[in-house]
Amino acid sequence: MSRFLLTISAAAFLLTAVLGTGAAFLLHGTTANAAAQSSSSERVVTTKRMPYPSFEMDVLVNGRPLTEYYARGKTYVEAMQSAEYEVRLRNPSPDRVAVALSVDGLNSIDAQHTSAWNASKWVIEPYQTITIGGWQMSSERARRFYFTNERDSYAAKLGQTANLGVISAVFFRERRSVISVTPRPIYRDDSRGNEPLQRDEPSREQSPPNKSRGESSRADAQASRDGRSMAIVPDDDYAATGIGRSVRNDVRWVNMDLESRPAGEVTLRYEYYSALLRLGVMPRETRDRDPLRRREDSRGFSPEP
After folding, report:
1. How far apart, in whole angstroms, are the C-alpha atoms of residue 134 and residue 101?
2. The pTM is what?
């Protein structure tokens, strides 16, 4: 089984992080082989998943979610200079899920840049919400997220500046156990007193092919090379996430088997106000009113009640 990291934050949230690396592929392979080796007298029954509300992600400053702006086919929030922030994740489904959470292209647990499938993950119980407040540094400590400039960012310190200004969460459902049902024999004229007929071999639903460990490693290496080749010179005018003060955040590992296909993905872009204006995400009138227009509206007395 895959190893998972279970954590309890200072706010008494029960958090779990999942190590979804090669062990997950071995686990999926074991499940597939078990189904293939089942007796011919059994058939595999799978339950149909019902649609549920979308997974949710919010960025919190001082415990309050930042306002979201929708433009250019993306969702934006306004970064607040030097403010610490948290990422709140909600699972509205009846299934336990594992979440790969990246900030500026770095995994929030181990600061690696990998695919979502191979990333270490946080676990959310059914219908629960968790809040991630920083970079997990060990089994006991984390370092707070805070808004800063690109040059001061954690990603810049690690030489990974290709994906600044983005927070992304990819959700994977826990794989449900397969239920084996032994059907009764089929009789001629459906009469139990007659000789049973031969039954065709039941079809079995095959698991999607998994990448080998070598293929997965090559994909991650290519992603790392892409990140380095696209690295840009850090700029002090744009928002990024720093590695802040150390806080207590206890963790432990648990086992979990995940479905290979993501159940959902949520991505947010964050920028300072000046950048949101340049992108056309936020109208200028919402904050910086033209001084001349303000003067034109001046009055000698207040209006009559």
Report:
1. 11
2. 0.67
